Amino acid sequence: MNANVDSLDELFVHKLAQQYYAEQELVEALDEMAINATNDKLSAGFADHRDETRTQVERLEDVFAALDRPAESRAMPVLDALEEERREYEDAIEDDDLLNMVYLNAGMMTERIEMTAYEGLSTMAGRLDYSDEVRTPLESNYDEEKSAYRELDAMKTASDMKSLWDRLTPGS
To answer: Which domain of life is it from (predicted)?
Structure first.
């Protein structure tokens, strides 16, 4: 972290910039997973969330505008690490079903991180008594992340994933 953070407002803007970075990076990652996933339901889910994520980027730009600040990105190391791990698995795994499992898990981990980030931003925005122009877009993004997580969580037990689990689980 190259910047000094000396106040809750500065911390909020720093975390907002990290989330802005994350959402921008995720548009590309979701696009790649939508293309590479061989499970149709998983692929469609990633494509739908990619489109939602583009809207989330715009909402974060609206938050910066409401704060009368230019939109800025700051690296989010935890997301970068997840992306690095996903790419390493892509290079190491040749089995499509196994790669689909990697994507499902990566998606769930990412959604949890994003939900936590938006919870923190919303808490800080409330403490800073920011207007609804700041708070509402954050809450909308949080709600979409929760929904995306629920969809991924339901997918892991869906009937079309059962044959995949059966094939990947020894002794099934």
So the answer is: Archaea
